[in-house]
Amino acid sequence: MRSSLILAALILLIATVAPTPAAAQAAFPKLNEVTPDTGKVGDVLTVAGENLEASTVKALFLTDGKTDYKTEITEQTATTIKFKIPADVKPGRFSLMILTAGNDPKLIEQPVKVTVE
Predict the structure, then answer these.
(1) Tens digits of per-residue pLDDT, 6-17?
(2) What is the homologous superfamily of the domain 28-116 according to CATH?
(3) Which of 7, 58, 73, 103 is the 20 to 30 Å CA partner of 47?
(4) What is the DSSP string of 1-67?
(5) Does the predicted model carry a pTM greater than 0.70?
(6) In the chain, where are the structural domains located?
(7) What is the mean pLDDT of the chain?
């Protein structure tokens, strides 16, 4: 009887402390749009989204699927990142890709595009 009570208490404790899948995904960064969506080397663009603070997003890249160009982040909040188009990028259409922060960083290509003239 006592071991059943301890087991029930342990299960209840784990259920209340363990993060749910929705809670684990709540802090996942997501890019929604970039304005303007066209720019030249050195221009500063603004990307809007969710969970974009520095504790979640470590770096932002332009990628064409073959080459990744690290941008300079000039401002960063929970909902926006302002970044500068890097000097070494060639003209073309690029996806934005984030490098997550934390113990297990990941590169995640986003469905947001930028055209560099």
Answers:
(1) 544 445 445 555
(2) Immunoglobulins (2.60.40.10)
(3) 103
(4) -HHHHHHHHHHHHHHHHSPPHHHHHHT--EEEEEESSEE-TT-EEEEEEES-STTTEEEEEEE-SS-
(5) yes
(6) 28-116
(7) 86
